[in-house]
Amino acid sequence: MLLTLLTVSALAFALPYMSDGDPVRSIIRSRVANMAVDADATAALKVKLGLDRPLGVQYLEWLGNALQGDFGFSFTNRAPVAGQIGSALWVSATLATTALAIALFFAVPLGVLAALWPASLLDNVVTFLTQSFVAVPEYWLAPLGILVFALYLGWLPSAGWQTLSNMVMPALVLALRPLAYFTRVTRAAMLDVLRAPYIIAARSRGLSMPRTVFAHGLRNAMPPVMTLFALWLAGLIGGSVVVEVIFAVPGMGRLVYNAVVNHDLPLLQAGVVCIVALAVLINTLADIAYLALNPALRTSRDAL
Question: Among the four 134, 182, 228, 230, which has the fewest Cβ within 10 Å?
């Protein structure tokens, strides 16, 4: 974990300098109306921001401050980066958790039903409908949702993050793709569980199929689903750029997008590092949770 985070921090710090844009010129142009940037003003601002020093010196100083929770100040709005990252992470985590909860709410029953009657009409319909969601791009579905539910019907706001109704459309758009994967993994896991000896034994003792499935089978089928849930959570917190930009959600995706457009180096570097660090943490916790949910793995570990 430490090696991964250290490597990502170095890449995150170095990559913005490899682009063609000059952050100093972008900062000046964002603060003054005149597009002609004075060379003396550019040099003075570069010295003030410390961008005239060697990259190695800049990186070590930045890393030392970052380990203390100090990511500096944004080049564009001069606000502390840590505060902006914290508020954006909370918004993205809320949106991602809501979207994945919606996906899980529908995917688990659909996956179980498809596994109970494999190769049936129900199984084919569930598989076709859920897998078709993978082919629907978010950059098409999000504007369509705004057109239908905000402009034509007037049921939901088109953008913003003021009330719970603002969360409905972006959460539903984000939920469709993981819903397809959750359904497929639930179906596959349940098929394996239903063929297990303890399920056959439970049925032979006279237990009904619903009680057998929900009391004995579903718990053992959930670990791979929860692992996939954690992977999607880590990905959506920093990867919902399209949805957050279209719906004007002040999350991490939109924050990093604006930092790229404005060449805001402190905000971009801190955003990338925090997203990766959170992804590594979530994946590690998912591994621990998988071990806790799967007794077979604990038994194998103890035997070793």
Answer: 134
